[in-house]
Write a structure and sequence with these properties.
Blueprint lengths: L15 H10 L5 H13 L1 H17 L19 H5 L21 E3 L22 H4 L3 E3 L2 H11 L12 H5 L1 H4 L5 H7 L9 H4 L17 H13 L2 H15 L3 H20 L2 H8 L4 H18 L9 H23 L1 H5 L10 H15 L11 H17 L2 H14 L21 H7 L18 H8 L1 H4 L23 H11 L5 H9 L6 H12 L13 H8 L9
Antiparallel strand pairs: 1-2
Amino acid sequence: MATENPAPDDGPALDPFEAELVAYLDGELDPVAARKVELRLAKDPAARARAAELKKSYDLLDYLPRPEPSPTFTTRTLDKLPAVKAAPRPANATPNPAVSTSMPVALEPLTDEPRPPAPRAARPRLALWVGAAIAVAAFAAVGYFATAAARSALFPPEEEPKIEVEARVIENLPLYAVADDLAFVTALATPDLFGEDPAVAFDPGLKIPPGDTGDKPTGKQLETLTKAFRALPAARRDEIVKLDRDLHALDATVRVRLLRALEAYAVWLERLPDAERRGVLAAATPGLRLDTIGKVRDQQWMAALPPALRGKSELIQQWRDDEAHRRERTAFVLRHAEAFAANKAPWPFDTEAGRKEVIEFAKHTFKTDDPKKCRLSTEELAEYRRLHSTAERENTWAWYGLFVYQLSARHPYLPESDNTKLMLAEPNDLPESYARVFKKKDGTWRFKQSMIGKWPDFPLEVLKDVSFLKFLPPNPPFGPPPLGPARLSDFKPSVREFATKELFPKLSGEEKSSLQRLEGKWPDYPQRFVQYARQHDLSVPGVTLPGPPKKWDATYGTRQGTSPK
C-alpha cells in the first residue's frame, strides 16, 4: 500500500535557539538554561545581534509612536545592504598614495599572500581581529607606512626608537589608524552614519558576559602592530594617543558605543572598492571626510534600490525624510527608555516651574495664541496643540519637549525692542527705499504673503530676495535703516541686563570687537549676539529656550549632544 507523502512545511523550521533566546529575554528560563544561553551569546556575534534586535524591539513597542504603514516600510534596511554588496579590493590592487601625517590611514597586511575575500555581512561586535582579512594578517599603514618601510631598507636606523604607550593603544591601532579625533568618532556613532549598525546598537542591558578577550592581538600580530605604530610620524602617534585618552576619559557605556561605531566604520571602509576607499581617506579635514562617508553611503543606498525606483526623486526624498524622522524618534526613545518606562518627565518638565517656563516661551516666540502673528505652519500648530494637550493629560512631556526643541531650531527668534517702529512686520511699515524695490506696479509685493504680520519672519523674508537687494543704497548711515533692533540699546531691558551681567563678561576681546563691528546691521548683530550666547551656554531671555543650551541638546538633540539641523 502506498503511503501518503507528508505535507510540505509552510516555512523553515524554527531555530531551537531562537525559542530559548525569546524565553531568556522574557526571564522564563531556569538559571542553568539561562547560563547556557549567556555563554553562547558571549561567543557568537550573530546570536548577540539577534538578542539585541529582539530586546530592542520589545523595549520600544510600548513607547514608540505607532504610525500608519508607509511605502518606506520595506526599504527601511536597504541602506545596510550596499556594504554587503561592495566588492572587496583585488589582491593585486595598488596601495593607497601617501597621505599627510595628520590624516587617518587604513592598515594593510605586510605579507605577500593574497587578501582573503571580505565577509559577506557585517556582524555585531565585529572587531578588526574578527575576519580572516584582518585577524590573521599583520598590519602596516597605507602610503607613508610603505614609504617608511622602503626608506628603512635603504637607510636602516642605528637603533629602533623606544616609545612607551598604553598597551590598549597598540591593540586598537587598526581602529585608531582610520580615525581623526573624538569628535570624528562621535559623528560616526550618529544614526545618519553607523549609529544603527547592529554592533553599535547592541544593548549592554542584556548583561552578556564580555567575550572580547580572544579578539585581542597576541604574539606576532601584536609585535607587527607595535612596529607599525613606531613607524608613524610623531605627530600622528600623538593624535592616536590623544584619541585613546579622550575615549577612555568617557563614561564606560559611551566609550563602548563609540568604539563599536569605530569598528563598524573600519569594517565598512575595509569593504569599499579602492577608489572610494582612497576618496574617504584622502579628504583634507575630518569634516570633509564625514561628508564623503555620507555621500558614499547615500550612493550605496541608492544602488540597492530597484532600478525602476531610482529615477523617482520625490518619492526617494520622502523615504529619506521618513527614515530620518524614524531614526530621530528611535534615538530619542533609546536615550530616555528608563524614564519612559517609569513615566517620568525629563528635564525641564520635571518641575512645575520648568513646565510653565517652556510653555510661556513657546507661546511668546511662536505666537501660538495669535492667528495672524503665529509663526508655525497649520500642521505644526495642530501638532503643537495635540502634544501640549496630551502632555497635560497623560504626563507625556518628553514628546512635547522634543517638538518644542525642534520648532525652536526651525523658527529661531531674535531679540525684540520696546520701540514698535523697529519691529517691522507689515509691508506698509517698510522704509521707502525698500518699498520702491519690493512693491510691484499693480500694488502687490515681491515676497511671500504668508510672512506678513510675523516678526522676525517678515523682515527676514524681505532680505531673502537678494536679486532685488542690489537696487538698495549702501548700508547705514547712507542707506536704508535696518529692519529690526540692531544695537544693544535697541533691545528690551531684560536682554540688555542679560548682556551686561552674563554674556559680555564671558566674551573674548575678539568676540566683543566682532559684535561692535556689526552694530547697526540687522539681522547680523542680533544673530551674532544669540550665537555667542549659545556658544557660552547661555539662554537669552525671551529669545532662546529657557535653560542651558547644552542641556537641551543633550536631552533632546537629534544627534546625541547636537542640535537639530
